[in-house]
Amino acid sequence: MAAKYDLRVFPGFRAVTLFCLAILYAPLVIVTIYSFNASPSITNWDGVSLRWYVDVFTGPDSEKFKYAARNSFIIAIIAATVATCIATLAATAILRGGRFRLRTVSFGLVSLPLMVPEIVTAVATLIFFNAIGFDRGLLTILLAHIAFCIPFAYLPISARMQGIEATYEQAAMDLYATRTLAFRRVLLPLMTPGIVSGFLLAFIVSLDDFIITNFVKGAGVETLPTAIFGAVKQGIKPNIMAISTMLLGISVVMVTLSWLVSRRDATK
Amino acid sequence: MAGGAASGGSSQSDTYAGARVWLLLPAWATLLILVVAPVGIMLVYSFLTKEFRGGVIWEFSWEAYDQFFFNRGLFGDEPPRIEWTYILIFWRSIWQAGVATLLSLAIGFPTACFIATRAPRQRPIWVFLVTIPYWVNLLIRTVSMKFLLRDNGPLNEALLGIGVISEPLHIVNTNLAVQLGLFYSYLPFMVLPIYAAVERYNFSLSEAAADLYAPRWTVLRRILLPAVKPGIVAGCILVFVPSLGSFLAPDLLGGARNFMIGSLIEEQFKGNAGNWPFGAAASMILLTLVLIILLFSARQQGRQEAR
Amino acid sequence: MNTSTTDAIDIRDAVKRYGDFTALHSVSLSIRDNEFFTLLGPSGCGKTTLLRMIAGFEDVTEGAIFLFGEEIEKLPPHKRPINTVFQNYALFPHMSVLENVGFGLEMLGHPMQEVRKRAGEALEMVQLSQFAARKPAQLSGGQQQRVALARALAPRPKVLLLDEPLSALDLKLRKAMQIELKHIQRDTGITFIFVTHDQEEALTMSDRIAVMSSGELQQLGDAREIYEQPRNTFVADFIGETNLLPVTVDEVQGGRAACHLPGGQTLTCDASAGVARGARVHLSLRPERVIVAAQPGVESLKATVRENIFVGTDITTIVDLAGGEEFRIRTSNSDRGRARIFEPGAGVFLNMEQGAARLLTD
Ligand SMILES: Nc1ncnc2c1ncn2[C@@H]1O[C@H](COP(=O)(O)OP(=O)(O)O)[C@@H](O)[C@H]1O
Ligand SMILES: [Mg+2]
């Protein structure tokens, strides 16, 4: 019995896909494995141990990393929150504000940080703060992150909003809700998965950003990525792999959450 | 990624039309002040005179662009010759980004096709698997790649172990390492738009072609590829553009000899050796290049839709 | 088994299963060369599945399919000299109309000059020559349909498969295309296998019709046979309109069967095979073959008029039989016909025409 002649199937494409996933995951898996290496050298394998995780929290570099981690998380939380609020409002205007002349321009503006190469944004932001005489420090990093995070928050939010028919809030207004109430009581709850998803993505993007941060941070100010970069410049050490694995774990957990949340559909 | 959310359907809801100025104000303010204005100021800076300890002197000058394109000798008094150093760095960046894009296409296209032809309920899971690594810190991924590719790293040990090679491969600090790093950094960007296009593709077109005597790979080449071309173009741009200005992959994987635009720019703003107007000018040239590519592709896509 | 080389397509005991769902139960069919053959059946009965098996897109779970005596199971679709007009046309959006029509010839390796010439001829056949340079999206639905037809005809296949090709067209265009398709089939001499769920369309166009239901072949025959001698209640009910009355057979003698209805009225009609005394069977009566009258005829049933409905060319009279069964009669809307219309409430006789009543055993 010959197999069905299926034109959706191309011989070899499955193999390429598995290869692709292998490439994507191999480095991450290997770094994770080696972060549990007992050996102080990164080349030898001396059995499983948690010593480098302990080292991250108590070792000679621990103060530096704790300081950097605190900065990173504070900036990520604030930047993601602000960016998500801005993106939610902008999505409402762009998708629920009728047709208007600046609509396409507004959308272009919101996605601008995705189109400009990151290094250019970094240079421009640095020059900007320099030109207006703004001292570089945590605040400059935060401002730059807010701008850069907006499109990442915007995309899931707008995708979500496009899936919600306008009849919902129209029905609410038909039942005597004001526009504001219709937004708060109907649109916002329906959009929650998109908003949560947008927040989490913005959070990761901020937490992970290196290039812009590296440009606009003041002397002595560090975030986790800049601290890691500085350490890596002196060679990859096992404690770096432990930090990387933790950061990797946070990203994976957040993305998974974001994915699960965005798949929940309140309208079904 | 910048997909056309703005060009929504014809039934455009206008519930919040009255409030749209206020709704858009925060976004406009933030992005105008923190992205558009800085790019404008950067343009201004690229025409200023350099201050030797970083920063600028507010005096108009062509110096930065002149230095980029022309060589006037050590003391600036010889007749101008074309300066190839920086043009070559740009060219190398374009080449590296191009190779990385082709690599991504070669792996990403079959992957996208494979995912788009799974059962509808399995597709999101595959897409998710492909996207997770993108959300992992680029720095960590690049470091991991370096760790994997080192001369005495796991890849070489594995290859030596199974006897495929007898000498470790020197990959780190070569062009290939940078290409692999870029490829690895942005591969999901290739897969996603192509996936979206193939998912929308109507496979009865493939059946019609097979019915008209086209063998399987001819169907792919003559029918499927042209139909998903917009997705392929989008994927190539999404990989090429960030690769072009990337900093981490060339810096960590390429070593000193495999300089790219990102490193060139970064250097101008580090410590005291920098030249801010020159860095701003290089950034402007990079931005112009990117905008040309984006405009070109937008026109291409527009023409596709007009059909 | 004898392999008749004159049959274009010979399907032998073909079974198709998807997992544990059986889409086709052992279908056997022979389709003659030069024939306009129709697969007719309600949606979901397996017509598309059968067509896709012939085209090569679905494998045959059991059984075999022969093309002019040759088994084609091993051939992939692109090696079968069979073309398909797809239900949604499946025109290649990035190619012009001419490129679409020439695609098959190009794939067969004909020189480009000949490809263009023959594609042009195919377009001429469907009267679309002036649209050769357009893209499919710039054509109306009816024009796209004709391009799809020209594209499938251009390589001169041995068999042309058409899967509900007219279902997306409006009524008027559909009627015109039915005639055009019929002419093209006659002129080219290509065997057409036409799929439709529209019985009227099937009756108008086909040389022979295969009626299918739930993955099984119900009856095979020409339009007249299928309409006038339905083999079972499904066919009788699906093709045209009919009155199906449950009856019990009292007596079978000399090819005639006497039966009675639940209400007690009796009736005699031609006995069909398998009808025996005591059998509970169905009586099928076409509404246009019964005459409403004040006086009984040779074979009559008593009834009371409930309602007359005007439907343009005809008048439908709904009556209640003595046992309470509903019965419909169609009378032509002519002077003669109108003379036979009775007011609601009137007691009437339903007089059967000779041979109008058929007994169906299942
Ligand atoms: N790929 C498939 N998998 C499972 N069942 C299928 C598949 N294709 C068709 N079927 C089932 O087979 C039956 C016949 O389908 P089809 O041939 O398309 O009917 P028709 O064309 O007569 O409307 C239907 O019940 C349909 O659900
Ligand atoms: Mg069908």
From TrEMBL, chain A:
<comment type="function">
    <text>Required for the activity of the bacterial periplasmic transport system of putrescine and spermidine.</text>
</comment>
<keyword id="KW-0997">Cell inner membrane</keyword>
<feature type="transmembrane region" description="Helical">
    <location>
        <begin position="12"/>
        <end position="36"/>
    </location>
</feature>
<dbReference type="GO" id="GO:0005886">
    <property type="term" value="C:plasma membrane"/>
</dbReference>
<keyword id="KW-0472">Membrane</keyword>
<feature type="transmembrane region" description="Helical">
    <location>
        <begin position="138"/>
        <end position="157"/>
    </location>
</feature>
<protein>
    <recommendedName>
        <fullName>Spermidine/putrescine transport system permease protein PotC</fullName>
    </recommendedName>
</protein>
<feature type="domain" description="ABC transmembrane type-1">
    <location>
        <begin position="69"/>
        <end position="258"/>
    </location>
</feature>
<dbReference type="InterPro" id="IPR035906">
    <property type="entry name" value="MetI-like_sf"/>
</dbReference>
<keyword id="KW-0812">Transmembrane</keyword>
<feature type="transmembrane region" description="Helical">
    <location>
        <begin position="240"/>
        <end position="261"/>
    </location>
</feature>
<dbReference type="Pfam" id="PF00528">
    <property type="entry name" value="BPD_transp_1"/>
</dbReference>
<feature type="transmembrane region" description="Helical">
    <location>
        <begin position="73"/>
        <end position="95"/>
    </location>
</feature>
<feature type="transmembrane region" description="Helical">
    <location>
        <begin position="107"/>
        <end position="132"/>
    </location>
</feature>
<feature type="transmembrane region" description="Helical">
    <location>
        <begin position="186"/>
        <end position="207"/>
    </location>
</feature>
TrEMBL record, chain B:
<feature type="transmembrane region" description="Helical">
    <location>
        <begin position="124"/>
        <end position="144"/>
    </location>
</feature>
<feature type="domain" description="ABC transmembrane type-1">
    <location>
        <begin position="90"/>
        <end position="297"/>
    </location>
</feature>
<feature type="transmembrane region" description="Helical">
    <location>
        <begin position="94"/>
        <end position="117"/>
    </location>
</feature>
<keyword id="KW-0472">Membrane</keyword>
<dbReference type="Pfam" id="PF00528">
    <property type="entry name" value="BPD_transp_1"/>
</dbReference>
<keyword id="KW-0813">Transport</keyword>
<dbReference type="InterPro" id="IPR000515">
    <property type="entry name" value="MetI-like"/>
</dbReference>
<dbReference type="InterPro" id="IPR035906">
    <property type="entry name" value="MetI-like_sf"/>
</dbReference>
<dbReference type="GO" id="GO:0055085">
    <property type="term" value="P:transmembrane transport"/>
</dbReference>
<protein>
    <submittedName>
        <fullName>ABC transporter permease</fullName>
    </submittedName>
</protein>
<feature type="transmembrane region" description="Helical">
    <location>
        <begin position="276"/>
        <end position="298"/>
    </location>
</feature>
<dbReference type="GO" id="GO:0005886">
    <property type="term" value="C:plasma membrane"/>
</dbReference>
<keyword id="KW-0812">Transmembrane</keyword>
<comment type="similarity">
    <text>Belongs to the binding-protein-dependent transport system permease family. CysTW subfamily.</text>
</comment>
<feature type="transmembrane region" description="Helical">
    <location>
        <begin position="176"/>
        <end position="198"/>
    </location>
</feature>
Automatic annotation (TrEMBL), chain C:
<comment type="subunit">
    <text>The complex is composed of two ATP-binding proteins (PotA), two transmembrane proteins (PotB and PotC) and a solute-binding protein (PotD).</text>
</comment>
<comment type="function">
    <text>Part of the ABC transporter complex PotABCD involved in spermidine/putrescine import. Responsible for energy coupling to the transport system.</text>
</comment>
<protein>
    <recommendedName>
        <fullName>Spermidine/putrescine import ATP-binding protein PotA</fullName>
        <ecNumber>7.6.2.11</ecNumber>
    </recommendedName>
</protein>
<dbReference type="InterPro" id="IPR017871">
    <property type="entry name" value="ABC_transporter-like_CS"/>
</dbReference>
<keyword id="KW-1278">Translocase</keyword>
<dbReference type="InterPro" id="IPR027417">
    <property type="entry name" value="P-loop_NTPase"/>
</dbReference>
<dbReference type="InterPro" id="IPR005893">
    <property type="entry name" value="PotA-like"/>
</dbReference>
<dbReference type="InterPro" id="IPR003593">
    <property type="entry name" value="AAA+_ATPase"/>
</dbReference>
<dbReference type="Pfam" id="PF00005">
    <property type="entry name" value="ABC_tran"/>
</dbReference>
<feature type="domain" description="ABC transporter">
    <location>
        <begin position="9"/>
        <end position="239"/>
    </location>
</feature>
<comment type="similarity">
    <text>Belongs to the ABC transporter superfamily. Spermidine/putrescine importer (TC 3.A.1.11.1) family.</text>
</comment>
<keyword id="KW-1003">Cell membrane</keyword>
<dbReference type="InterPro" id="IPR050093">
    <property type="entry name" value="ABC_SmlMolc_Importer"/>
</dbReference>
<dbReference type="GO" id="GO:0015594">
    <property type="term" value="F:ABC-type putrescine transporter activity"/>
</dbReference>
<dbReference type="InterPro" id="IPR017879">
    <property type="entry name" value="PotA_ATP-bd"/>
</dbReference>
